[in-house]
Amino acid sequence: MKAALAIAAAEIRQSKLVFWGALAFGAFPLFLHFVRTGVALGPAAPGQEMPYPFLIAITAVGYSLAIAVLMGGTVVARDIGERRLGFWLSRPVPLLAYWGGKLGAAFFLAVIGGLLTIVPAHLLWALRWSDTLAGLSRTMQPWLVAIALAVGGAAAAGGAFRSRSGVLLLDIVLLPLTLAATFLAFGSSVAAGADDIVAGLIRPTLLVVAALVLLAASAAQVSVGRFDFRRGHLALSAVAWGGLLIFFAGTIFVVSRYVAAATVTDLRLSSAFFLPAPAGDRVLVEGRTVHRGNLFGLDKQSAGFLLDEAGNASSIGGNPLGLKRSAWSSDGTHVAWVHLGMIGSSSLPQPLRSVPGLGPSLHVHHLARGARPRMLRLSAPAAVLAVSPSGRRILLATAASKRVVDAETGEPVATLDAPASWTRAAFVSEDLVRALSKQLYEPTSVVEWNLAAGKLDLRWPAASATPLTLVPSGDWQQVLRFDASGLFLHDLDGRIVATLVDGWGGRANRAAGPLSGGRYGCIEEEAPGRLRLRVFGSDGRTLTEVLFEGRFPVRVGGEPRPGVLALAPTSLDERPRATQFVDIADGTLARPRPDSIPALRRWEPLRELEAVNPEPGSLATRLFLDRDGRLSSIDPAGGQRVIVTPRARNER
Amino acid sequence: MSSLAVDPVLEVEHVSVRYGGARVVEDVSLSVERGSVFALLGRNGVGKSSLIRCILGQQRPSAGDVRLFGRSSWNSRRAAMARVGVVPEEPDAPPEMNARELVALLGDLYARWDGADVLARIERAGVSARVPFGKLSKGQKGAVMLALALGHRPELLVLDDPTLGLDAVARKALYDEIIGDLADRGTTVLLCSHDLDGIERLADRVAIVKERRMLLNEPLEELKARFRRLRVTGTGASGVDWTPFEISASDTREWGVETLVANFSDERFETFRARAAAVDVEVVSLSLEEIFVALVGRKEVSS
Q1: Are residues A157 and A178 in the same domain?
Q2: What residues of A are in contact with residue B60 (Cβ under 8 Å)?
Q3: Are the C-beta atoms of residues A269 and A649 closer than 8 Å to each other?
Q4: Residue A361: is its pLDDT beyond 90?
Q5: Between β-strands B228-233 and B280-285, what pairing exists: parallel, antiparallel or unpaired?
Q6: What sign does the dihedral A343-A349-A350-A352 (CA atoms) show?
Q7: pLDDT attached to residue B52
Q8: I need a labelling partner for A377 at 20 to 30 A (CA). Which of A271, B4, B36, B258 fits?
């Protein structure tokens, strides 16, 4: 230790210029202020905001990192490059003391240099010591880690260059390989939905590990190689690349695999999202999983699963931005979703965007084939608006355009310049896109886009009658409209096909689904002191009415058995939490499932019904969430519950 | 070739050094006794510096073993260096530090350090202790390095061509300093130099490395005693029978034959003389430099 301190002290004494340079750099923001304003900084009045705190902080951090790189890259490397290592090796000094003294001096100079840059601002009253100390206490740890990383990296790089050995060629090969492996591993983590975990690991842990690996590599060069520079360089490269590969690419890859191994039973559904197939026989569910307990306290990640009637669940990977960017084909044979990749991936260079997982990608799952979903790279983030019944065409929305792509190749079939928020409901076939336009053509209209001719037609003539949605039956040729006068089905030419509700009974009325195969519609009407649920057929005829005392907020959440609607509380936090069931034939109520609500509860009246038309008794109508977020399905015959996600949302 | 010393400070056993596929030192063995001055000679590029680095634990031999004070120099470098002083071929002290700072620094690194003595030596050499090392002349650097090497009173002083580039005055001063230290303390010296005159003043034992291998290793006096140049003139000089001499080199001149014999002794000379009575024979003693040049500068001739 004494030797290391002596060597460090000698090195610091030789580098006194660092301190003077820090003071000069520290005065730069103040000089800038004087040049700009012609006024020197003076004591600040209480409460007055100090000028240039950010610039001063950047100067301090930048100066310290520059010194870290400069000193870290020379203190040992210079002895190697100028063949002066023998001076130290011929002393009774442990090699690690020599190395530690040298790099310790570099670290010390970087830290003290950085701190000294803020002294002029304090001496001239531009900054308060109390503010600075408070800021330092918050930022000290990452700052020190960054300096250690800079010193270690520069020491390793400097040692490699100055040893002048042929091993440098190996480094030149391994550098891009390590970067590629790291990016590939990170891409897999993004695809698995583990990027949050990896980011959480990288910040505090992997950067420290990287600094230690690089410092160890530099130490290995000196201690193993001594005056055999080729041997030392080999040791450096082995430790550096081995360590970085193991700790970066390896750790990220292992974490990704670990996270991707989560099953549906690991889901914690505090905020789940469900996307049922049109017939309701399959459901995509997305939520957060906590895999095998607690991995560094960070193993909560987004994960998606495809559930089917037989109780099978298959992973669809991480889909952190939700299934809202997903769609089923109208026959339920295909489902497509977009994975946006790494946040900010659009600013990545193209080669990196093409790394699987990092850039946006389109995933198409042909359920009949039973194969793994096909992944197609996208050039820009997009959302799946619709899948054609054949599964061969997919309508994508990007920030600036609509695009129909071939589901086999991802190649665009047709492109239309239109903003992303253009479409509310959409249908795509081999040659046609029919969509409810919200913004592109005011007022809201139904747009038909002939793909072969590239021609746009407006099919909704009633300018004053705002359509609610396109009805997902046939080629989506019906429009649902509601306003103060009632709820109506129209054809595309604006003619009324059916009047579902003629007039409203109260002020705060809401329409609710499902519009089960066109068989039923529901409407909640407020009456004085009570709430009335009216169930009507597609011809508008009222089938049954149920009255609730008080203002029990309900939503129709499914039809777990034919002829029986599940009425759910709108929130698990509301009381009573019990799901009630109403028999459409006679309006009788049953309450067999306390503390659970249908998973497919409707939060917005009718608006979520565009593509969902579950068959009575299908899986989609039989999924229920209890108050702790456990997902279960009930058997339509006996009402038996099958637990899908056994763990509560807060259970680790 | 090597001889077992009673109290060896340094033992080198079958050491080889390779850089990749290039062989630099091949199966070299030697032993340095306590209190002796051992000179390691060889032309440039024969691997002397690599061997020195192996001896100092700065480089691991590709094969063989080096022991300093009975312990592996590679594994026990730190302990060994507390007892060894080194003057390298190229003065390698930090160029920004002056002699005074170097003395202070090394005072912290050695358990036993006589800083005043070091500064006195530096002053005696006429070197300013306040001038940065990098700005000193070559001779001044050598003087400072020698002073630093002796500051902890080493048991073994390793001098790797310390006189390289020095003028005659600086060389003399350096040798005087070494000789003084030898007289005072009986320090063991391993000396590697091309200054063979200087070595002849100091060395007890000489080893010569030729083409990566040890050519000879023996006491200097024995070496000088067994090497003679014989000049044979007169009729029949070219056909003379050299038995019982071992001929290291032979040249035919206009006036006769000049031969370097490697096993000269009075008895052998009498035997030779008896056989070659018809010719005139002149026996010439050789300096170390002449022996060295004859051995490594010429092609060997089998006797």
Answers
A1: no
A2: 226, 228, 231
A3: yes
A4: no
A5: antiparallel
A6: negative
A7: 93
A8: A271
Q: Which residue of B has its CA nearest to A81?
A: B92
Give B1-83+155-167+185-218's CATH code, choosing from 2.40.128.130, 3.40.1410.10, 3.40.50.300, 1.10.340.30: 3.40.50.300
**Are both A139 and A192 inside the same structural domain?**
no
Give the model confidence (pLDDT) of A445-481 as tens digits.
788 888 888 888 888 776 567 777 777 666 778 887 7
Query: Is A247 inside any structural domain?
Result: yes
The minimal CB distance from B88 to the residues A14, A86, A91 is found for A86
Angle between helical axes of A129-162 and A229-244 (0-180°, round to 10): 130
- Quick one: A139 and A172 in the same domain? no
Residue of B nearest to A167 (CA): B20
CA distance A227 to chain B (A): 5
How close are the terminal C-alpha atoms of chain B, in Å?
19
Q: What is the 3-state secondary structure (H, E, C) of A471-512?
A: ECCCCCCEEEEEECCEEEEEECCCCEEEEEEECCCCCCCEEE
A610: pLDDT strictly greater than 50: no
Position A351 pLDDT exceeds 60:
yes
> In terms of domains, do A37 and A151 share one?
yes
Nearest residue of chain B to residue A15 (CA atoms): B96
The pair of structure tokens assigned to A79 is: 């002895």
**One domain for residues A252 and A281:** no
* Best of B100, B105, B141 to mutate (most A CBs within 10 Å, chain A): B105
pLDDT digit string, tens, across residues B59-110: 999 999 999 999 999 999 999 999 999 999 888 899 999 999 999 999 999 9
Taking a contact as any Cβ pair under 8 Å apart, which residues of chain A between 86 and 105 contact chain B?
A: 86-87, 89-94
Name the token pair of A633.
Answer: 């399905």
Position A521 in a domain: no
Domain count, chain A: 3
What does B231-265 look like in DSSP terms, one character per residue? EEESTTGGG---TTPPEEEEEE-SSEEEEEESS--
Chain B hits for A92, CB-CB cut-off 8 Å, are 78-79, 81-82, 109-111
Residue B269 exposed, middle or buried by CB count within 10 Å (0-12, 13-18, 19+): middle
Q: Answer yes or no: do B108 and A3 touch at CB < 8 A.
A: yes
Residue B303 pLDDT exceeds 50: no
ipTM of the complex: 0.88
Instruction: Indicate the residue type of B94.
Output: P
Question: What residues of chain B have any CB closer than 8 angstroms to a CB in chain A?
Answer: 19-20, 53, 56-60, 77-79, 81-82, 84, 86, 88, 90, 92-94, 96-97, 101, 105-106, 108-111
Q: Which two tokens stand for residue A310?
A: 């037989």
Contact B94 A6 (CB under 8 A): no
Question: What does CATH list as the number for B228-285?
Answer: 3.30.70
Domain ranges of chain B: 1-83+155-167+185-218, 228-285
Among B52, B59, B73, B133, which would you mutate to test the A interface (most chain A Cβ atoms within 10 Å of its Cβ)?
A: B59
Q: Which residues of B touch A10 (CB under 8 A)?
A: 94, 97, 101, 105
pLDDT in tens, A293-335: 555 555 567 788 889 888 888 888 776 555 667 888 878 888 8
Helix or strand or coil: residue B230?
Answer: strand
Among candidate residues A231, A261, A291, the one where a domain is terminated: A261
* Residue-range definition of the domain harbouring residue A184: 164-261
> What is the least distance, in Å, from the CA of B59 to any CA of chain A?
5
Q: Average pLDDT in the B12-40 region?
A: 90
- Nearest chain B residue to A166 by CA distance is B20
- The closest CB to that of A91, out of B60, B101, B109, belongs to B109
Helices then strands (H, E): number in chain A?
15, 32
Rounded to the nearest angstrom, the minimum Cα separation between A8 and chain B is 10
Residue B241's pLDDT band (cuts 50, 70, 90) = confident
Mean pLDDT to the nearest integer, A50-79: 87
